Structures are given as structure tokens and as C-alpha cells.
Sequence to fold (352 residues):
Amino acid sequence: MSGVSHMLPFVVGGGILIAIAFLLDGAAAGTSSFGSSTVVPAFFKGVGGVAFGFMLPILAGYIAYSIADRPGLAVGFVGGSLAASGTTFATLMDKDLTAIPSGFLGALIAGFLGGYLVLGLGKIFDKLPDSLEGIKPVLLYPLFGILIIGLVMFIINPFVGAINTGITNWLNGLGDSNKILLGLVVGGMMSVDMGGPVNKAAYVFGTAQLATQTQVGQEIMAAVMVGGMVPPIVTALSTTFFKNRWTEDERKAGLVNYIMGASFISEGAIPFAAADPLRVLVSCIIGSGVAGSLSMAFGCASPAPHGGLWVAAVLTNWPMFIVALIAGSVVGALILSFWKKPLSPEESGLEK
Fold:
């Protein structure tokens, strides 16, 4: 969670800038220069690409930081960067070989390995004289930590890279029915804990697939995004059209959730889920699953990792993306509203 939360600003900012580049370069769609055929879109794509490129180093760096504190940061950063580059001993010896990045999986491994590696070094260095205490964080940890994580990543990169390639090929080869099932799963996951580990796992999976720059990757990102937009809108619709199920304060909070949902901020539904977790979570999970599967079925695709309806202009088949969002939200709202018992007039604040 530490790695993901620190990674998100880079992914969101960079990804939306890249999406703007594609939006501005529509005339070059379908060509190899799409997104950078002229100066202005090339600027947006270049800056966004640099920000997006920090995704794996930041992820690995802050996973290691959460385990080993500050000494783990540099080791994790380097491990994540090596995962992104895919460099191996074989590519060093033969320049004609193409490096295959180990990607998100490699960065995860680098983060955990880097953190526990530094903890292990700390136990070893505890045996050194007290006079050397001051050089541990500035010399010993970074020197030995970076050296060892480099050796490890050079060894595991080809294996994890092969796994990544296999996953990408499998996703690209999915038939329509399997894509719909995948959309159902990742969409539903976005509502399980609304900003918690399961939600973040689905989101990071979407951004990792987006980084592959494939059509399937963009379709998965769209399914993830629409799934995360559903929970606030479910509660907003229920509080608007089934007023007697909610208190006056809940109805006021529900109005704000239209904006939260449109902006892909799942956390807007958290107060409602905290008050009635079973009904709200189950209803939202079903609604998000429906939205995610419909998004996949309609072939909706998003080159942007965030933004909700504010980036609709860059979405492929955006009208059907909105249809998927409305359908999932309505299904979730109806389940929630009919499942909840009406409140008394005194509790709801409504007149008899």
C-alpha cells in the first residue's frame, strides 16, 4: 500500500498528460507517430511519459521504505528501475538481444527483496564497531544493498519478464466471453474495499496493463475505472430516488457523490459502507461488476489511468462507457434500495 499510494500521483498525472497528447493528435491516429506527430502533443506525451516512467521505481522504492525505513529507499528505487529496464547479464554480453522488462511483478519483487535485504544487512552491520555507525546509512547500506539487488534483478529479470510476456499474450488472446469475465472481476474488485488493498490491487493491475500500450490493456483500464466510479453513484441514486431509506444527512452527502463518482473517486461511498457494510458493499460490488463487464463487452478503452468522465474525450467508444456506468450504477442502486428497509418518518426526516 505504501508503494501504491506514492506511485499514484505519477501514474495519474503522467497518464492523463499522455491521454491529452492522443486527444490533440487525432489526425495521426493509426500511424506510428500517433501522439507525437507535432510539437504540442509531443510535449504532452514526452512529459507524461517521463512521469509515467517513475511508476515502477516509486512502487519498489516505497515498498522497500515501508519495510526497512529510509535505508531501503535507494535499494528499492534501483531494483524497480532495473525491473523497468529488463537488463540481464545476457543483454550486457550481447547488445543485439532485446531487454524484456519484468514490469510490475519485477518491481514488486524488487521492493520486498530490497526491504528485507536492508534489514538483513542491518543485522550484519550491527556487529561493526560503534565508531562506524555514522557511515552505515550513507555508505554501507546503499553500496552493498544496491550491489546485491542489482545482481539479484539481473538474474530474475529474464524469468519474470517471460511471465509478463506470457500474461500480455494471454490477455491479447482473450476471446470476448473471457474479456467480459475479466471485466466483471476487476470491476467488482474496485468496490470490495473502496480504496483499500483489493481496490488498489485491481487499479494497479489496470495501470500495469495500460503500461503495455496494447488495446487490451486500455480496455482493462476502462473496466477498472468504470468499476471504481460506480459505488458513489450507487449511493447517490439511492439517496435521490429512495429517500425514505436514508437520513437527512445521508441524503445531503449522497448528492456530492454524483461528482465523486463522475471523477472516479470511489472513496465517496465509504461513509455509507461504514454505516451499513453488508448491503452497501454487496450492492456496489454487483453494480461495479456489471459496469466492468459491459465496458469490456462494448470494447471501451482508456489511455488515461484516471479522470472518470472528465477524460471521456480520450476514451474509445465513450458513449457506451457511459451506458456501462449508468447500467451498473442503476443495478447497484436498485439492489441496495430494495434491500434496505424504509426508515420511520422520524429517522428519515420526511413527513408522513
